[in-house]
Amino acid sequence: MKKLFSTAFALVAIALATNTTVFAQAEKGTKMVGGAAMYPSKDIVDNAVNSKDHTTLVAAVKAAGLVETLKGKGPFTVFAPTNSAFDKLPAGTVDNLVKPENKATLTKILTYHVLAGKMDSKIIAAAIKKGKGKAELTTVEGGKIWAWMQGGKLVLQDEKGGKSTVSIADVYQKNGVIHVVDTVLMPK
């Protein structure tokens, strides 16, 4: 009887685990980022906190006081730098930026990665076509970034001439869309 109970319990546990996995995969448009499912039914912040590749970005968003903004209705387009993108910055830059006395500078850099509206790759591609190969995009910070296609990848250029490539596009959120980028964009 004890063995039968253990076997039945194991089968129920497997069934529950399978149903949870199927549900996660069943939500249309769910993508994996940083080892975690990014659900279109969740907001930008609720998804980002689960990505192991975006812990630096999440810490910076918290330090800048932008959590409530990015949990807001939006819609927003976020070019989300990975931890390795932040690692490309000179040593000590991130530690310095998250200090309270540098909140304004950090906010400027982070909002330079955000566009008002939901601009997925199709909309950006249409803007690139309209711009004859290059699109000029205005950030929430008020600066400009330029976008074009290179070797099948979306490339961005900041106001200082730095370039970043989108590694994962069109990660849809309840309040916008995220494009994962490999380099931090810098305003002038």
pLDDT average, as an integer? 87
CATH class: Mainly Beta
Helical run tally: 8
Domain tally: 1
What's the CATH H-level homologous superfamily? FAS1 domain
The CATH architecture: Roll
Number of DSSP E strands: 9
Beta-strand proportion: 25-35%
Unreliable stretches: 4-25
* N-to-C SSE string, H for helix and E for strand: HEEHHHEHHHEHEEEEE
Q: In terms of quaternary structure, what is this?
A: single chain
Q: Within the CATH hierarchy, at the fold level, what is the topology?
A: FAS1 domain
Global morphology: globular
Q: What Rg do the Cα atoms give? A: 20 Å
The largest sheet has its strands arranged as 4-3-9-8-7-6-5
What is the rounded distance between the termini? 72 Å
Residues in helices, as a percent range: 25-40%
Structural class: alpha+beta
Largest sheet data: 7 strands, mixed
Organism: Pedobacter kyungheensis
Pfam family, one: Fasciclin
InterPro entries: Adhesion/Biosynth-related, FAS1_dom_sf, FAS1_domain
Keywords: Signal
